User: Which sequence fits this backbone?
């Protein structure tokens, strides 16, 4: 049984499923100036001290509104096949722990927005959305931390349609409309601690939205909303759009996914050059030959869109490799 199945079982054991045919509702807006028309019905007051995820209206007391369709997610390449779920879980842990160590200020890490992680790639089709979703599921399962997973690939969203949120307002709508709060487009899932923000409606001014003054405000709102948890931004490829390069200004850590034997070295170097120098970079080699650790699990191979053996390299804030 993999990360997702165990997390879903825990959520189902603690909450009753939503009635059939009930319409999804946005999470209760935070007291941040959101207009009343955007606010859903106010729930009962939350006991902040008793919440395992800290003081926030996004805790597990609210009804889950996004059901993770495991079959659909596997078919779309966002989750590994059932037979490979255990192995993938171990590989994602190898990516996760250094990121969480930086958030916890271990190993001399500089705690500048380290709890905001951008996952990207040089080019399309390298496995960044797969990495984003599985990293988020791993964090909420193993560390009991809340995660807000944001689909920042507003031009070609992969996470949003996979979660059945293609018709919902999201990040791009919030950037376009100053009256719309990020809390109004943040949806809770049936996996405890996991919240998602869809990409929203495409706009030809998306690069300007990302570079404008609204974007850092939205990031700050997400940081406040997640509390002691983690914000994961599934970004567009660095060499395909302008949005990804701009977004690296607002995060503390960048995960660069590279597909082995496909991505040219020059493309990787060009992508690294576009990342803001203030961000710490973790490079994940996807589809690599199994390492010594992998030999304990035997040979395996995923189809298009899946992460095979993940090998991790990190770049410190000075820009060098260690």
Assistant:
């Amino acid at each position: 049984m993999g990360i997702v199945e165990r997390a879903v079982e825990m959520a189902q054991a603690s909450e009753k499923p939503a009635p059939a045919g009930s319409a999804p509702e946005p999470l209760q807006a935070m007291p941040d100036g959101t207009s009343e028309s955007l606010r859903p019905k106010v729930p009962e007051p939350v006991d902040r001290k008793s919440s395992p995820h800290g003081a926030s209206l996004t805790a597990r007391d609210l009804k889950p509104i996004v059901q993770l369709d495991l079959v659909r997610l596997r078919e779309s390449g966002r989750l590994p096949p059932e037979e490979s779920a255990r192995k993938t879980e171990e590989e994602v842990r190898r990516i996760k722990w250094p990121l969480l160590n930086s958030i916890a200020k271990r190993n001399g890490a500089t705690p500048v927005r380290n709890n905001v992680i951008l996952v990207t790639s040089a080019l399309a089709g390298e496995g960044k959305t797969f990495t984003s979703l599985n990293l988020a599921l791993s964090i909420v399962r193993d560390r009991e931390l809340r995660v807000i997973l944001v689909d920042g690939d507003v031009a070609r969203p992969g996470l949003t349609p996979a979660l059945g949120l293609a018709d919902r307002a999201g990040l791009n709508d919030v950037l376009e409309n100053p009256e719309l709060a990020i809390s109004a487009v943040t949806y809770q899932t049936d996996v405890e601690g996991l919240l998602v923000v869809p990409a929203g409606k495409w706009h030809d001014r998306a690069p300007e939205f990302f570079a404008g003054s609204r974007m850092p405000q939205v990031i700050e709102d997400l940081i406040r909303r997640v509390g002691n948890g983690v914000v994961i931004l599934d970004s567009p490829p660095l060499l395909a759009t302008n949005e990804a390069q701009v977004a690296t200004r607002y995060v503390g850590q960048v995960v660069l996914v590279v597909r082995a034997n496909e991505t040219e070295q020059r493309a990787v170097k060009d992508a690294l050059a576009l990342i803001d120098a203030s961000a710490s970079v973790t490079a994940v080699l996807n589809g690599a030959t199994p390492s010594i650790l992998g030999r304990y699990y035997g040979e395996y191979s995923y189809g298009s869109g899946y992460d095979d053996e993940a090998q991790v390299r990190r770049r410190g804030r000075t820009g060098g490799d260690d």
User: Anything to note?
Assistant: Strands lie at 116-121, 147-151, 187-188, 194-197, 230-234, 253-259, 280-288, 309-315.
